[in-house]
Amino acid sequence: MAPLASALPNYSWGMATPSAWYFLDGPRRLIALDAASGAELWSAELGVAGDLAARDDTPQVDASTDGVYAAFEIADGGSVEHIEFLDPASGSVRGSFALPYGQRAHYVVDGVLVASSVDGVGGYAVPSGEPIWSIPGAWVVERTAGRVVLTSTADPTGGTAVEVVLVDAATGAERWHVRVAHPDPPADEQDALWDAAFGADEVFVTETAVLLTFGRFLSARHPETGEELWSADHGLTNVVDVYPLDPTRIGITGFDEAGRFAAEVFDTAQRTIVATEAGTGSTGGSWAVRLDGRVHVVFAPDGDVPVVLGRDGVAGRGPTPLVGSQNAAMSGDRLVTLSGGELTSHTVPGLVPEWTMPIEGGANLGFALPDAVSLDLVDSVSVFGRTGGS
Q1: What is the 3-state secondary structure (H, E, C) of 73-123?
Q2: Residues whose CB is less than 8 angstroms from the CB of residue 109 and which lie 6 or more positions away in sequence, other chains included
Q3: Which phi and psi (to 5°) does residue 104 adopt?
């Protein structure tokens, strides 16, 4: 495990894209590092012009393959957000603008910044900020490739249905719009079902379907028409993530009826549960990894051994319990864990330890790319290449 970048003593934030690592070092200095070598690509001071320079607040930064932007709250109470776009190759400012009152940025997709407020959702050209489209109403915003999925936060008829709209991110054109009625649950499950339906994770987008979750129920919609393909009781009381394993199998993580963090493999053709795993507690993590052309799910409940699930069920089981899911991450096709002062790389799906290295002092795993991981130390961060250990 070789260090790629020395510690950044004023580190306060970081994230990774396939080509670069981004760190906030201090309140305004953004640093970009090459993902493969750790070499510094550029550094830039954010918000150096006009009213932004006089403020002492730290911006929210987002980086993706679509670009890099920083969002500053420039009015008391954060009612107005100022966006500054940076060139991912050089760090130079490409453009900046203020969003309409109350709107908050979500992400950039296909050259469009998607933002929303309680009054509506809008798309803005990058980097000019020119308004392209707007949709009125209060919506939860989800992302998919080149499109935006909107779900209503309230049933306009006063009932218990959810509105779902798929729009083109570039134009705002509506592709389809459906109103989905809730299943009729027992009275004592009404509140939990409502909370699950309107939580942040009630919509999942795959290549073949838009999946809507309603407590224990799952509804699959055609991505082009919104037509319901199937619906079923998937067994978990609340869904955290959905992973497409192949055209007819999905992995689902969430919570079982006992409140434990759980995972299952679900057959969408037969509407049956293929396999189920559950931890002893209510916390944990999960990741998707592609092996030999197939997607697997690494399921890591806190305090229990991690498990790899494939389309046919359990494909591997770790030898030792994982302490703290925040200390595990997928780096390429390896599960890297930090536990008991040791950083360990495990093969997948067998979860066999292939190397271990000691880590002194308190640390947490930050985030990972295929060949490197970052470690959050007490007052700094370091990036290590995943090339082997001792």
Answers
A1: ECCHHHCCEEEEEECCCCCCEEEEEECCCCCEEEEEECCEEEEEECCEEEE
A2: 66, 143, 145, 146, 148, 169
A3: -125, 140
The answer to whether 315 touches 308, Cβ cutoff 8 Å, is: yes
Classify residue 317 as exposed, middle or buried by CB count within 10 Å of its CB (0-12, 13-18, 19+): middle
One-letter amino acid at 382 equals S
Helix (H) / strand (E) element for 62: namely strand 60-64
- Segment 97-150, tens digit of pLDDT: 889 888 988 888 888 999 999 899 999 999 999 999 999 988 888 776 667 888
Position 299 confidence tier, pLDDT thresholds 50, 70, 90: very high
Structure tokens at 47: 């918000």
Query: 84, 115 in Cβ contact below 8 A?
Result: no
DSSP, residue by residue, 153-217? SS-TTSSSEEEEEEEETTT--EEEEEEEEPP---GGGHHHHHHHHTSTTSEEE-SS-EEEEETTE
- Per-residue pLDDT reduced to its tens digit, 51-103: 665 565 677 888 876 678 888 877 655 577 888 899 888 999 888 888 988 89
Residue position matching structure tokens 């991450």: 329
Q: How many angstroms separate the CA atoms of 252 and 28, rounded?
A: 39
Q: Are 382 and 6 in contact (CB under 8 A)?
A: yes
Pair 331, 372: CB distance under 8 Å: yes
Strands 81-86 and 67-73: antiparallel
The separation between CA 368 and the C-alpha centre of its own chain, rounded to angstroms, equals 13
Q: Are 279 and 303 in contact (CB under 8 A)?
A: yes
Q: Is 379 helix (H, G, I), strand (E, B) or coil?
A: coil
Distance of CA 21 to the CA centre of its chain: 16
The answer to whether 388 and 6 are in contact (CB under 8 A) is no
338 three-class SS? strand
Q: Quick one: which H or E segment has residue 52?
A: helix 50-53
